[in-house]
Amino acid sequence: MFRGINICYLRKLAGSVLSPKTMLELIKYLNKISPLSQGTISSLVELFRPTVLKEDEFFIEEGKYAKEIGFLESGVARAFFVNKEGKEYNKQFFVGPTLMGAYTSLLTNQKNKIAQKTLTECKIWRAPFHEIESLYAKYHDFERLGRKIAEHYFLEKEKKEIEMALLDAEYRYTIMREEFPGLEMKIPQYHMALLHEGFG
Description:
Layout: H1 7-14, H2 20-33, H3 38-45, E1 49-53, E2 58-60, E3 68-74, E4 76-82, E5 88-95, E6 98-100, H4 103-108, E7 115-118, E8 122-128, H5 129-138, H6 140-166, H7 169-179, H8 189-199
Antiparallel strand pairs: 1-8, 2-7, 3-6, 3-8, 4-5, 4-7
Helix pairs in contact: 1-2, 5-6, 7-8
């Protein structure tokens, strides 16, 4: 049991790809951000479906309309853009467990500009974003969770902007390594360099 959610119920929802334990990881992750009631959790878990992406597969491509949000249960992915000369720059790493998705595209209904692609095999729970949004009006605790996630991304964006303005590239690279300890052992070194160059 986890916050009143029966394990048999989770097994019924999870299907055959991932175990009910994986669904519990999603609930645990969200509850750390903001506690959710059993009713909210029951409605929420019904929206997520498990997928496994192999290394070097897209979660969302550039130029596509984002429709889903994902919970990265395990693995490493990256968000990256390509400049006019065709050179790639890594903008962000996603290391499970964490949320991922093309939020600007989801919120604006415009084509995505920052692709997201796996660097290792990734276990990802996907949910239609429009169905996620429909829960805001129904559950106040879920609306609070959405607000806290939005606040987190705003603060992270502001933090990165301050670092870009005040810190040199080498020090920013050191901070990134502290935020993702051991990441350089999981992915090719040149991807770390691409993020470093993107900071410059």
